Amino acid sequence: MVLQPGLNAAVDAEARSRTAEAVCFISQLPAEAVSKVGASNVLRTVPVKTAAASSSEFHPRGARGRVAAIALAAVAAVTVSHRAQAAWGDPAGDAGHFGFVLDSAAEFGGDNLVDVFYRHGGTQHIKAGQGVTLGGGIHFRPVALPIDFAATVGYKFVRTAAYNTDLGVDRVVIKLTGTVPLPNHFWVTAGPVWHTGTKLNGDGFVPDVDFDDAVGGMVGFGWRWVGVSYTNIKYRGPFSGSVDASNGGVTFTWKF
Predict the structure, then answer these.
(1) What integer best gives the mean pLDDT of the chain?
(2) Among residues of the chain, what percentage have pLDDT more than 90?
């Protein structure tokens, strides 16, 4: 079967019956990008074995990210529970307050980078803006302004559901945000974001791609420690054009 870069492709029944493997390929990079990183036009079969019938079922490797996120949320929730009720979950500290931030996010969207077709019929799309972020930083609310400024650094990652591969995307996310508190513990926030060290890790199945550093912007809205966000950002690399990594997601932020 021949891969047409930028287009989706299906795995025929004969190919699935011949192997106990999954098939993956670079999906939405420009054709020039695919050629520059050395990707072949021939669809590859790769040993991405699954213990379940499809990518939607439980896999140990995928579970580790979920467990890490749940653990972070649990620790922060226990810590926050010891604060005074009046201050619990406030989106901004008191005037003149300097403190620490813990944050996490689950984000979705962007162009497809890799499509993985599992032998039992399941399909997984790894998107440029997709991933779980775990991070932390500092925040400060000036006396003269009703705005809480925060600087955070986080690690964002996404993996396939297959348990025997590190195929996925990694990056470091640096955010500078200003949060304005609203009545009844609601808030709005906005600021620039910087993605650095962004890499598509092909794990030997598809070529690795190192993307350039990228700067974008985000806006968000929420209540107490939970919110929704939208980030607009594009990735460029050793190719002409760009890859859309814009995304929307759910955020969790604890300020101390």
Answers:
(1) 75
(2) 50
Q: What is the pTM for the complete model shown?
A: 0.73
CB 115 within 8 A of CB 27: yes
Residues constituting the chain: 256
How far, in Å, CA of 206 to CA of 203, rounded? 7
Q: What is the pLDDT of residue 91?
A: 67
Which residues have CB under 8 Å from 206's CB, separation 6+?
24, 25, 26, 39, 44, 46, 114, 167, 200
- Concatenate the DSSP letters of all residues of 166-222 into one string: --EEEEEEEEEEEEEE-GGGEEEEEEEEEEEEEEEE-BTTB--EEPPPEEEEEEEEE
CA dist list (Å): 144 to 61, 93, 111, 239 = 48, 13, 42, 47
Per-residue pLDDT of 84-115, as tens digits, reads 443 445 667 778 889 999 999 999 999 999 98
- pLDDT band of residue 59 (cuts 50, 70, 90) is very low
HEC string for the chain:
CECCCCCCCCCCHHHHHHCCCEEEEECCCCHHHHHHCCCCCECCEECCCCCCCCCCCCCHHHHHHHHHHHHHHHHHHHHHCCCCCCCCCCCCCCCCCEEEEEEEEEEECCCEEEEEECCCCCEEEEECCCEEEEEEEEEECCCCCCCEEEEEEEEEEEECCCCCCCCEEEEEEEEEEEEEECHHHEEEEEEEEEEEEEEEECECCECCEECCCEEEEEEEEEECCEEEEEEECEEEECEEEEEECCEEEEEEEEEC
3-class secondary-structure state, position 248:
strand
